[in-house]
Structure to design on (655 residues):
């Protein structure tokens, strides 16, 4: 019975350790990309500009460096290939040995001598699906599970050869939280080293190792913290422990020191039907009182092994291996679909959409079925319906569409449907803008700068392929930086005009200004969400209005004389207004007459200047020498200003 006792004891201890090991399967894990030996393996990454969506397509932009598990650099700053869409990659099928972790660094230029690097470490070895496990090799599979799990992963901030590791990311954990855990270094001089944690200080986020590392712990060294052997370390680091080795344990059990408290009186175990000699219910070495209890432990152990299962188990939660496959299946179903971001396109030009399909390892992979595309115009009409895209490379699809010249302008939408697995469809969309009939805007001149009515000659041209009704606004402002609208304009107006494709619209725009000074005349034309505009600086001036003088005629000789005063007659403006306001809107007539009055005012100004010139000539004649004779006049013309005269021009007769 001696052999069976030790067999049961060994089974119990193994079951307990196996049960604790199983729990690590549910710890959070970070899986590196796994490459099988002698099988093509692609390591890559999409590189975009600072805006986050424009791909960088510069050749030799990124380099890769790979160090194998033997610490030999097998690839040193080798230029990575690129696909002219921002995807940079390195591929090989020649790696066979040694299996293990290949530390890989991918660095890309960011201007000048600066670089940015990222971790692309991968593992060379057979896939998990290729591992075969039976009850006889349970420990092997359990170790594989444990190697893929850990409790924390980080980068050291600092350290020293005196067994300390500092990492600010550990500050969220309480004091002594990591005591008896195991630190495994993945990179740096200590890569592969495992050390036990003796103390953790949250205030300084410092881990103190029980034994010093061989080399200095440098800033940036990558490490993980694992609880796999925490219980064993906790027992060994217990302050009240008196045992120093396994050999001492066996000796202490049977020596005279522990004889008074030892209840096991013999090392002999009888037959299968006998109890353990001397064992009672108060046995302190092991609580086994009967063969039935031993058999129960054996039965429980078998149940635990059944719960673990085998690698051939189907995906389910019934066994540990089934759960692993379930988790693995969830990871492999993590597909990613990216649709290019198109900004805007003019009518008559080509719109282009590109789709990228990647698997859970971010590797370009063909979709289960060819992706289809739907395009909606600005009025939500479907112009392209479920058309298959064109495959241009593995996992890359493209579609082009020529926007008609008469297409509705505004925001359009593209929707792509990609079937990545049977029954699994991922959709992506992109909003883009169709623009047409761009307008050219010119302010040719300020045709009238006299207040109160300012006029400008303008031209608006439709440079598109189809007619368009333009909304436009014009204003007069006192500063170039002041935009039309907002309530602070000196004058503001708006209107709309339909212009055929390729034609010019010439017109005069007027606005009212009450004060002379320096101003800006601005014209803004809208087409879709875009605008075109023009502005012109000018000075608004006041034009003096001459005072008309009446004609008074005095006849000479004979004593008899006569005088006449013109009878006021209606002005031209009054006559035209009265005649046409019954046919056309008075506002339009008044606008036209106002401009005519401006012309008349300028003519009166010229006439006034001629009168001033005439007066100057008369003054010169009055001081001429006496030898100059003048002819007697029969009539004398006297000019006398009067307070008000109708707006018709005053007639002056010189004799």
């Amino acid at each position: 019975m001696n052999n069976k006792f030790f067999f049961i004891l060994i089974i119990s201890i193994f079951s307990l350790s196996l049960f604790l090991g199983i729990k690590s399967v549910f710890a959070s894990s970070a899986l590196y990309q796994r490459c099988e030996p002698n099988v093509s393996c692609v390591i890559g990454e999409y590189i975009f500009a600072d805006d986050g969506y424009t791909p960088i397509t510069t050749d030799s932009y990124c380099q890769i460096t790979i160090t194998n598990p033997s610490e030999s650099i097998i690839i040193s700053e080798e230029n990575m290939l690129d696909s002219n869409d921002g995807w940079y990659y390195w591929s090989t099928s020649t790696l066979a040995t040694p299996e293990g972790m290949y530390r890989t660094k991918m660095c890309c230029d960011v201007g000048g001598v600066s670089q940015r690097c990222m971790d692309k470490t991968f593992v060379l070895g057979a896939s998990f699906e290729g591992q075969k496990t039976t009850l006889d090799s349970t420990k092997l599979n359990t170790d594989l599970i444990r190697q893929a799990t850990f409790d924390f992963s980080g980068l050291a901030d600092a350290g020293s050869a005196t067994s300390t590791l500092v990492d600010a990311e550990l500050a969220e954990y309480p004091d002594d939280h990591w005591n008896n855990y195991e630190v495994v270094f993945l990179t740096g001089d200590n890569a592969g080293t495992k050390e036990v944690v003796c103390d953790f200080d949250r205030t300084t986020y410092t881990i103190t190792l029980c034994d010093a590392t061989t080399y200095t712990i440098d800033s940036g060294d990558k490490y993980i913290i694992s609880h796999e052997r925490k219980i064993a370390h906790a027992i060994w680091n217990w302050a009240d422990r008196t045992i120093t080795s396994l050999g001492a344990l066996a000796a202490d059990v049977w020596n005279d020191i522990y004889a008074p408290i030892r209840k096991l009186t013999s090392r002999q175990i009888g037959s299968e039907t006998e109890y353990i000699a001397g064992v009672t219910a108060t046995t302190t070495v092991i609580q086994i009182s009967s063969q039935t209890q031993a058999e129960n432990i054996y039965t429980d152990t078998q149940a635990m092994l059944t719960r673990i299962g085998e690698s051939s188990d189907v995906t389910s939660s019934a066994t540990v291996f089934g759960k692993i496959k379930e988790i693995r299946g969830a990871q492999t179903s993590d597909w990613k679909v990216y649709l290019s971001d198109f900004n805007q396109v003019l009518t008559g030009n080509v719109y282009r959409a590109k789709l990228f399909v990647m698997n859970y390892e971010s590797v370009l992979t063909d979709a289960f079925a060819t992706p289809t595309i739907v395009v909606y115009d600005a009025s939500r009409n479907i112009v392209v319906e479920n058309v298959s895209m064109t495959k241009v490379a593995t996992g890359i699809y493209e579609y082009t569409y020529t926007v008609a010249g008469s297409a509705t302008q505004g925001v359009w939408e593209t929707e792509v449907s990609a079937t990545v697995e049977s029954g699994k469809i991922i959709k992506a969309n992109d909003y883009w803008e169709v623009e047409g009939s761009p307008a050219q805007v010119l302010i040719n001149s300020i045709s009238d700068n006299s207040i109160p009515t300012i006029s400008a000659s303008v031209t608006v041209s439709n440079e598109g392929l189809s007619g368009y009704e333009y909304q436009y606004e014009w204003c007069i402002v006192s500063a170039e930086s002041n935009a039309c609208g907002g309530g602070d304009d000196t004058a503001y107006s708006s209107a709309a005009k339909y212009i055929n494709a390729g034609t010019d619209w010439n017109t005069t725009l007027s606005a009212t200004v009450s004060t002379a000074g320096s101003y800006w005349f601005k014209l803004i034309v809208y087409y879709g969400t875009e605008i075109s505009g023009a502005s012109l600086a000018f000075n608004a001036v006041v034009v003096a209005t001459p005072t008309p003088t009446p004609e008074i005629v005095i006849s000479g000789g004979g004593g008899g004389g006569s005088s006449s005063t013109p009878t006021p007659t209606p002005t031209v403006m009054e006559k035209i207004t009265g005649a046409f306001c019954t046919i056309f809107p008075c506002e339009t007539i008044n606008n036209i007459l106002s401009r005519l009055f401006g012309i008349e005012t300028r003519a009166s100004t010229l006439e006034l200047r001629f009168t001033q010139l005439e007066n100057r000539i008369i003054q010169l004649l009055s001081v001429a020498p006496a030898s100059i004779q003048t002819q007697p006049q029969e009539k004398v013309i006297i000019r006398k200003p009067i307070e008000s005269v109708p707006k018709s021009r005053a007639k002056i007769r010189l004799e």
Observations:
- Residues 336-435 form a domain with the Immunoglobulin-like fold (CATH 2.60.40.1930).
- Residues 586-622 form the longest helix (37 residues).
